[in-house]
Specification:
Number of strands: 0
Largest sheet: none
Number of helices: 4
Radius of gyration: 30 Å
Low-confidence stretches: none
Strand content: under 5%
Structural class: mainly alpha
Mean pLDDT: 84
Shape: elongated
Length: 95
């Protein structure tokens, strides 16, 4: 391999690396790391949204579970019905 071929090979590899770096948006990531307050703010807002999503999701899931437990109580299954009735009573008292 002579010097020209080696130079073309290196140039091609550098171009390929540049394309990969553009696809990874490495420049945007580096700019974000240079601004700690912006990084903090984005993480804070993301955490708030994740927390709200979990709270809403848990509330909906809990309401569905309590609804089905109330329906099971009306089936009058002897052993399960008493336990579920006590759980539903405790939950309704705490609301």
């Amino acid at each position: 391999m002579n010097n020209e071929e080696l130079a073309k090979f290196i140039e091609k590899k550098l171009d390929d690396m540049g394309i990969v770096m553009e696809k990874l948006k490495l420049v945007d990531y580096m700019e974000l790391l240079q601004s700690p307050w912006r990084l903090f703010w984005l993480n804070f807002i993301g955490g708030v949204y994740r927390g709200l999503g979990m709270a809403v999701g848990f509330t909906i899931l809990g309401a569905i579970v309590i609804y089905f437990l109330q329906k099971l109580v009306t089936l009058n299954i002897p052993v399960i019905g008493n336990v579920i009735a006590q759980i539903v009573k405790i939950v309704q008292q705490n609301l």
